[in-house]
Task: structure prediction
Amino acid sequence: MLVGAGRARRRLAQVALLAGVLTGCSGAAEDDTKTSASASAAADEGGAGSASDTAVKSGGTIGAAGSACELPVTFDIAEDWEAEAIDNGAAEEKAADGADASADPEEAELAEVIADAILYQGPVAAACEVDAKPAGNIGFLRVWTGKPGEDDARTVLEAFVAAEKNTSKAKYSPFKAGGVSGVEVKYLSTSELLEETKEESALAVTTKKGPVVIHLGGMDTDEHREMLPAYELAKRTLRIG
Result:
């Protein structure tokens, strides 16, 4: 029994470590939840529960060489949001180093599976994370990139959503921003662990360097809706790099 308990604890430790591979993935502390709840309540009282039509100030542009994240596209991030690049190779190495050196093959395989689940979704890999916490929300605008191929934006986005699992009511629509054309989706994601369903949004474009997906999640639907103006800013200013 003690051996089994020890293995369980090691597995939980691996999950905790690997969940933090994406910058800030495990950074939403319990105290922040209370702050966010207060902010959401204040927004509802002020009649701003759905803030998707509220403009936000730009905090700068990312995607170009020398910016926080070098990507095949460029776009503006909302004021006070913080961007940080995700190095997939370094993240996988960190996950491997975090595994117990004495772990058996089964535990090593578990660590690899968890790392893959965090760093990859369908045909794309995590490349950049823009944290909303400095602006007062709990959530991220994440950018995923893939290898060049023949798939169009709709196909890439459908594969991205399908890889998330437990999604429903996906509604796809084309969009244009400047000279950029792409596809976006609004859908629901259900957590079996938390037994909660929340709204999520994503868009996809294709470039010569490969497809790009920009995804907005959030701790819950209220947080997601409060962060939608930042997503709309990114979509409105999106350009092929």
